[in-house]
Amino acid sequence: MLTVKDLMSRELHTLKPTDTIQQARELMLEKRIRHVPIIDEDSKFVGLLTKRDVLAISVSALADIDIKERNELESHVPISEVMISEVVIAQENTALIKAANFMLQQKHGCLPVFKDEKLIGILTESDFVRLSLYLMKKTSEYQ
Fold it and tell me: Rounded to whole angstroms, how far apart are CA atoms 58 and 64?
C-alpha cells in the first residue's frame, strides 16, 4: 500500500506568522510553489498560506498603482492576518488513496504531512500529477 510518505514533497519552504504577504509572494514566485506552511519560532506548525489567500488579500493588478506601491502596501500585512489556522493534516502513514479522495472531495490543494507532531512534508496536487505522468509513461512502454 502506498502512503502519503511515498509521494509527498520533503523540501519545505516555510515562513513565520510575522513575515509579510510581500515575502510570501516573493517566496512563491521564486520557488514556484502555491502552498507555504507557517511555523512559529519553535518550528511548530501553526497554519498554512496558499496562493489563493495571497491573491485574495493582495492589491489587484487592475488597481491604479505600480508594483513598488503594491509591494509597499503588502510589506505591512503580516501572514498571521491571512493564513489558515485550522488545517487538515495527514500523518505520514496515511494511505495515499485516502489522502487523494479527501483532497478531491474537499477541493484541498494540499495536505501538510506529519510524523507524530512534527511537520515533515507536504502532499500537493502537483505530486499526484507527477505520479500520473510516471504511471502513464510506464504503461505506454509496454504497449
Answer: 13
